[in-house]
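Run: sequence + succinic acid -> complex structure.
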Amino acid sequence: MERAAVHEAATGERSRDPAVPPLKTQSLSGALGLEILDVDLRDKLPPARIAQLREAWHQGLIVLLRDQVLAEEDQVRFAEYFGLPAKTINVHNTGRHPAIMLISNIRQDGKPIGALPDGEMHFHTDQCYIERPAAASMLYAIEVPRAGGNTLFANAYLAYETLPADIKRRIDGRKAINAYDYDNASTFRGTRLREGVPHYAHPVVRTHPATGRKALYVNRLMTIAIEGLPDDESDTLLNLLFEHQEQRRFVYEHVWRVGDLLMWDNRCTLHARTDFAPTERRLMRRIAILGEKPE
Ligand code: SIN
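>> structure
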């Protein structure tokens, strides 16, 4: 599916339907991000519009559509324009569509109704601890805090491209182990890799299958070690890479409004979350899209 889309994006064939006017977009920041204007996702979109959205997404790395009023099936249909929605393995789905998961700090009988309920989160990319991590993820904002709970997105292409040549040489061809300890370190970096925690080694630098660009594919929350390096050297190198990729010049900070639908590309971005008061309600509806094995 991705390959077909690459072809469409490269040739512009399907996006050049004269009945479909050009997409209106505006940049979200100097680092990354495009806002798509005048598209209502309750409508079923024609193929040429979908091709335009895919092009905009590859160009912007994240796309934002504001003021959407979306039922679950509208959000699932939007996800399907980009690939196959992944079934959630988490308990925090809504019980209706298997791909929908809630991210929320709202509690019923003392238990959060969603995953990743509280506060700040370190930078990460979704599912980098499995063989085929999610290509994309999206959040639809239903309730948002009055302050904080912003999501930060970093451009992983720029992070790679701006590395000094000697660091590029040191990471070239290397793999890193990514792990996710959901029970003990779901929002902040853990201190050790516990037995039984899902983990997978992926290239430190991956090539995006649609754009052909290289992106730095490590992150503070989940990347544990660079394979084949002594622990000290791996820790030092990883810290250097984390500090580099999280620089503000590579980051767009999204302040949520109710009705925002924001989709990011996990293959060329990483994301984090700022703190927010536990007394504020935050409710997001999330869908992830199946990805390929990073190369
Ligand atoms: C996530 O990492 O998937 C959640 C981000 C957020 O809650 O802003």
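>> summary
The CA atoms of residues 132 and 292 lie 5 Å apart. Residues 103, 116, 121, 137, 151, 271, 273, 284 surround succinic acid (CB under 6 Å).
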